[in-house]
């Protein structure tokens, strides 16, 4: 992995008191996603670069931002007893969690920063707008507009509509893509 938990905390303005185990699974997801975006060969070559190299630094910051992209939903919850609570405290000490829309916008921001940093290093033969997952259930909870997601178990293709995935079908007579229904 190119980045560290400390750098992720720094990029996200997260407190040092946040335990590493809260971010570690998301760093692993970010590393896997980076290998898909850059290809494993480019990612591995970047790991071998000097830490002062511009590509290394850009990819390191991008990985931190992708980690934040994956981590934000789980960091946006407080638990009490056996359940998730919407807010805590009273009056001036009251704090509310982000709305789903705010979480989505924050995720889009972190992913946008990461993609902007990675753009110069993405091999031109890689189309990052087409992503594949073993099953539909492994799709990200929040997709990216303009991306085509493929469920490899069925071969079905989907796009993100801002709130869910739309299943695409091919009309073989006309050869055009059209929407079936919102999933």
Task: Name the descriptors.
about 180 residues; alpha+beta; 2 domains; five-stranded mixed beta sheet; two-stranded antiparallel sheet; 5 helices; 9 strands; disordered C terminus
In total, the number of domains comes to 2
Number of strand elements: 9
> Which class do the helix and strand fractions yield?
alpha+beta
Element pattern in H and E: HHHHEEEEHEEEEE
Q: Helical element count?
A: 5
Q: Order of strands in the sheet with the most strands?
A: 5-6-7-8-9
What is the terminal separation in angstroms?
A: 35 Å
- Average pLDDT score: 81
- C-alpha geometry: globular
Describe this structure in words.
It is a single chain. The chain is an alpha+beta fold. It has 2 domains: 5-80 and 98-125, no CATH class; 131-182. The chain contains 5 helices and 9 strands. The strands form 3 sheets. Strands 5-6-7-8-9 form a 5-stranded mixed β-sheet, with no helix packed on it. A two-stranded antiparallel ribbon has the order 1-2. Strands 3-4 form a two-stranded antiparallel ribbon. The longest helix is centred in the middle third of the chain and has 22 residues, at 54-75. Mean pLDDT is 81; it is low at 79-86 and 171-183.
